[in-house]
Design a protein that fits this description.
The protein has 279 residues and is α+β, with helices and mostly antiparallel strands. It has 7 helices and 11 strands. Helix 3 runs antiparallel to helix 5 (155-172).
């Protein structure tokens, strides 16, 4: 009787274990920010699953594929980029000079492309699609420009062209480009020095041109000021007539308490001497 009881207990435990195993393999959770891709016996369903709890065939697998924003950085600095080693993108300019581009891109997997990418590429699509596309587009675009253009004011144009072309390439593979950031351009040292010297010389020329222009404008201003003074003096001189001076003399008499008159010739104006003011 005791043996039967032990046997029954063992069978119950085995049954419960089997049920637990079946249940654990029949339930899958697709986390938030992911889509699920259903696979059974090597066959992948074309319909992506939204985040949530799912009951499935114990022999099936639901793969979670992130559709959140991701970053991929290719940089000179060891340990800072997506690779542990230095991973800057090298390219040749229009004149054949090697330059390095330090960059970061932000991207996300398109929800409707998750199943297709898992079936044709696998989960390692960043290294298989994203990274090669970055390098290919950068090299194609850089080859159209001279080094001095990439290093100076046309850098923004280069960055935009890379971004536009990369967006198109990635979208064709089911990946959405959110942003492309060109952080730094590294040129050969001699070329960097030559470009900086040229830019400095150009800036000096612009400054001198500005100073000359400023001096010319100041000279024009002074000429105009002198002309104005000369014109004013001419107007004043022409307006001082004997009649005006006589009128001014008469108007000024009440301003003095006691005056001494010094007569001049018949047509002249007598001088006034303020006697009271000298006391």
């Amino acid at each position: 009787m005791q043996r039967r009881t032990m046997f029954g207990l063992m069978m119950t435990l085995i049954t419960l274990g089997i049920v637990a195993i079946v249940l654990s393999t029949s339930i899958a959770i697709v986390p938030y920010g992911n889509v699920g891709v259903y696979e059974i016996f090597g066959k992948i369903d074309r319909e992506e699953l939204e985040p949530g709890l799912y009951f499935k065939n114990p022999f099936a697998t639901i793969h979670s594929m992130s559709v959140q924003l991701q970053e991929y950085t290719m940089t000179f600095t060891i340990g800072e980029g997506s690779k542990k080693a230095a991973d800057v993108t090298q390219a040749l300019t229009k004149e054949g000079l090697p330059i390095g581009l330090d960059m970061t891109i932000r991207f996300q997997l398109q929800k409707s492309s998750a199943a297709s990418i898992l079936r044709t590429v696998g989960k390692n699509y960043v290294d298989i699609i994203v990274r090669p596309d970055i390098r290919s587009v950068v090299r194609d675009v850089v080859a159209k420009y001279e080094a001095k253009q990439i290093y100076s004011e046309e850098r923004a144009n280069v960055s935009k062209e890379i971004s536009d072309r990369m967006e198109q390439h990635l979208l064709e593979n089911g990946i959405i480009l959110d942003a492309y950031l060109l952080r730094h351009v590294q040129l050969p040292e001699q070329l960097t020095t030559a470009i900086e010297e040229k830019l400095t010389a150009q800036e000096h020329i612009w400054r001198k041109e500005f100073e000359v222009k400023e001096a010319v404008e100041e000279a024009k201003r002074k000429v105009a000021e002198a002309q104005g003074i000369a014109d004013a003096n001419t107007i004043i001189a022409n307006s001082i007539t004997p009649e005006y001076l006589k009128w001014y003399f008469i108007q000024s008499i009440p301003l003095f308490e006691a005056v001494t008159f010094i007569p001049t010739d018949q047509d002249g104006i007598p001088f006034m001497y303020d006697v009271a003011g000298q006391k």
